[in-house]
Amino acid sequence: MSRAMDQARSLAELATRQAELLAPKPPKPPAAFGLFGRNPLTVMQEAMEYAVDATQRSILFWDTMRRAGNDFVEHEKAGCPPVLVFDWDMVLDGRTLPRRCNYALVRIKPPANYPATDAAMRPFVIIDPRAGHGAGIGGFKSDSQVGVALRRGHPVYFVIFFRDPEPGQTILDITAAERAFLRTVHDQHPKAPKPVVIGNCQGGWAVMMLGASDPELMGPLVLNGAPLSYWAGERGKNPMRYMGGLAGGSWPAAMLADLGNGRFDGANLVLNFEALSPGNTWFKKYWNLYEKADSEPDRFLEFERWWGGYFLMNRDEIRWIVENLFIGDRFARGEISAGPGARANATFNMRAIKSPIVVFASVGDNITPPGQALRWIADVYRDEKEIKALGQTIVYLVHDDIGHLGIFVSGQVANKEHTEIANTLEMIEAVAPGLYEMRITDTAGSGANTGYQVELVERTIADIRAVSGEAENEAFPAVAKIAAANQTLYDLFAGPAIRQMATEQTAELRRQMHPLRLRRTLVSDLNPFMAAFAGAAERVRDQRAPAAADNPFLKVERAMADRVEGAMDAWRDWRDAWTEVAFHAVYGSLAALGVSEATAEEEAAETADALADAPEVRAALARIAEGTYAEAVVRMMILLARARGGVRRSRLARSQAVLTGEPPFAELTAAARQALIREQTLVVEMAPEEALQTLPKLLPDKAERRRALETVEGVAGPEDELGEPAQAMLARLRQVLGLKRG
User: In 419-453, which positions are buried (b, 16+ CB within 10 angstroms) versus exposed (e)?
Assistant: First the structure.
């Protein structure tokens, strides 16, 4: 009864929120376009001018659509090769590995105007998403993730994939291939640090699976718009997470794969993406092409080449993804089996990852909202102290408004966020373990990379919950259970019959008749009615007569376009609202009736005393009064950063210079430096006052104390820029060491 009352209250709150969102808006008064009260001859002249302009733009529009259709047909004939703007060489083809798959590792060749790559610098390995489209979005433009790394002299590798999967290929086969790719990169660069591995969108969970299974292969990990907590989000937003439940689970994906003769058509995923924002993808994108028919075609054709390439998955692959990630949310909960070759009952556990992790999300991303990109941190780690105890460094960056694709293809994002992330990665291993938010602010600096100031600000798990949205997810465990039952019924009754009827010929016919493919082939030269637009467009370009910018008929045209887009967006809002209400009404009610056994209360958080009993923490605290100059300097820098609540990248650069270039740190290996930073972080976090008071025991000689303090002051920079808490800590350091300022 209590659960039923809670469910009724929840539905009432949801209905109230949606009612406020969808309340009828008063109609806008008709706009004045300047057509009335003017000289009729002038209006007629403007009408003729607009008619010519509109006709010419229509011809240019349809010619561009014809060219896009031809590009699609040629791209399909070529097997949908990667859309990388850079040349590349094949390094390792996954189709030749013992566990064959359709993935491959290529090395990007820097263009002639780029600096030569340095084999001793940290390599970058970029993994693109295989979510319907092809590979190449991370190197789609010169201003991209690939371009940022190449311009800094890093060797850059890209994980591509081919359109058709290998027979019997599974997700775990792909993980094994990517493991082999990373070993190959290690062999290619034996003197370089461990590679940076970048995962875009669904490539992000592939990167995290690699990091969890083979942490020794990985350098820093960068997750861009990567969904890892599929149940997370805010009520009233992010409707895509409800679709799997309303579809009844994974059986529709399995059915589509069976109709495809064992292969799932990625065009179905792309159609779902487009449906998220129909006003933009089904109207505004084409309207922009028509309105800017003189300047927009090249950009439109460039993007369509990637957006219009549709890839296939095996039945087992799409079912694994839907059941483990979309429906089950098993990765964040540590329930995905590591598969054959792993120890008994082994799973992919994100807590096993030891490399620094950088997460880039955006509030404007409706495909991977911040909740899905960040909530896994709160699901995996009890609190920020546990992150430090495990020696983990996690940095997250949230953009205010960029959309999902903008994270990968926007030149502005590449030249700001991706550039600053790359700059920070060079010194991120000098950051003390913990949870940080990266803040990038504009400055008045000049030069290529001096226009932004970067600061890492310490955050807590509570901050992650606030950013990601603390929606109650009591309905989702019920989805997982109902989906499993539906899948079993489908496998027993419908699946075998469909597989008996499906052939490769019928599967290919279905693929060619998919609306996203027809939308392109019907406007290509395969349609004889489109041939006339090529010659007509050439004549229009020779005789182009655009209307004046202040033509009132252009204002009418734009107003009508806004009305159409607004109507489609209003329909989207109604659809999303009813989707959310229906989801919680169905599955929330089932959960209230006890259908799901997975709705047990969360385990109580362990106390700080339990964390202090961890072996590594006890060992660090036992040595709190032991050490030399190196331990003292690192401890003092961590105490200062803790007092300030973060660290600017300029100070981080100075810290990196000390820890890698000055004795005794220069004689240490990278692993030894990391162990030193981790141990002193534990000491400062678990016993900050004792860590401060025992500094004199680490520095019994006064000259050593002075040298250590001067080193720390040099890293900190001008004292008047530190802020009061850090200034107070610096004063305490001087007091404890018995030294005066200066």
Answer: bbbbbbbbbbbbbbbbbbbbebeeeeeeeeeeebe
